[in-house]
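Supplementary Methods. Inverse-folding protocol.

Structures were first reduced to a C-alpha cell string of length 220. This string, shown here, constituted the complete conditioning input.
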C-alpha cells in the first residue's frame, strides 16, 4: 500500500511537470513566436506551416519512439513517459481551447526567452526527476548517442540546432536568437531540477539519477 501511494505521488509530480511544460509552450512560446528544439519544436513548426495542433503532432512523433523505449529503458520508464506525453498533449489542447490568458511579451522578448527557459526547463526537469521523459525526442537522443558515440548533451544540441534551422523559414532572425537563448536557459534548468537533492518517491532512485545524468548537457 505504501509503495502504491508513493507511486501515485510520483505520477502526480510527472503530470505537474507536463502541465508546466504545456503552459509555457502555449502561453509563452506559441503566443510570442518562440520555437523550441526537439519534437515540440517540430510540432510548433508544423503548426505554423500546416496549422496542425501541436498536441496531435507531438503524439504522432512520440509513438514510434515509445515502442523502442520499451526495449531500451524498460516498462516503468515507458509507462511514465507515456503518461507525461499524454498529459502534455491534453493540457496543451485544453489551453488552446479554453485558456483566456494571453501573454503578450512581443515588446519584451528577453523576458519571454527567460520565462520560456525557466518554465520549460523546470517542467522537463520535474518529469525526469521522477522517472519519466518529456517525449520521444529524449529517447531518440539516447539511441543516437549510443549509435554514433556522442554524448547525450551533444546530441540534444545537434537536434535542437536542426529544428531551429528549419524554423528560420517562418521565424525572423530576432525571434530565432531569442529562441536559442530560451533553449540554452532551459537546458541548464533541466539539469538543476533533475539533479536536485531530495528523495525520489518511486523506490527506484538509481534509475532516475541515471536518467538525470544521461541528460546532462556539457558545460561550455
Amino acid at each position: 500500500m505504501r509503495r502504491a501511494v508513493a507511486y501515485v505521488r510520483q505520477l502526480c509530480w510527472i503530470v505537474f511537470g507536463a502541465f508546466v511544460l504545456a503552459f509555457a509552450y502555449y502561453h509563452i512560446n506559441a503566443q510570442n513566436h518562440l520555437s523550441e528544439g526537439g519534437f515540440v519544436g517540430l510540432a510548433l513548426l508544423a503548426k505554423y506551416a500546416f496549422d496542425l495542433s501541436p498536441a496531435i503532432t507531438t503524439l504522432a512523433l512520440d509513438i514510434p519512439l515509445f515502442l523502442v523505449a520499451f526495449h531500451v529503458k524498460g516498462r516503468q520508464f515507458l509507462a511514465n513517459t507515456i503518461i507525461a506525453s499524454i498529459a502534455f498533449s491534453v493540457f496543451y489542447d485544453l489551453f488552446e481551447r479554453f485558456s483566456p490568458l494571453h501573454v503578450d511579451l512581443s515588446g519584451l522578448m528577453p523576458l519571454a526567452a527567460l520565462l520560456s527557459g525557466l518554465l520549460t526547463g523546470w517542467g522537463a526537469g520535474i518529469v525526469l526527476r521522477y522517472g519519466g521523459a518529456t517525449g520521444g525526442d529524449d529517447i531518440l537522443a539516447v539511441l543516437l548517442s549510443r549509435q554514433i558515440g556522442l554524448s547525450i548533451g551533444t546530441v540534444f544540441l545537434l537536434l535542437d540546432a536542426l529544428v531551429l534551422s528549419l524554423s528560420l523559414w517562418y521565424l525572423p532572425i530576432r525571434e530565432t536568437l531569442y529562441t536559442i537563448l530560451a533553449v540554452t536557459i532551459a537546458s541548464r534548468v533541466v539539469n538543476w531540477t533533475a539533479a536536485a537533492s531530495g528523495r525520489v518517491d518511486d523506490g527506484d532512485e538509481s534509475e532516475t539519477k541515471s536518467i538525470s545524468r544521461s541528460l546532462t548537457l556539457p558545460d561550455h
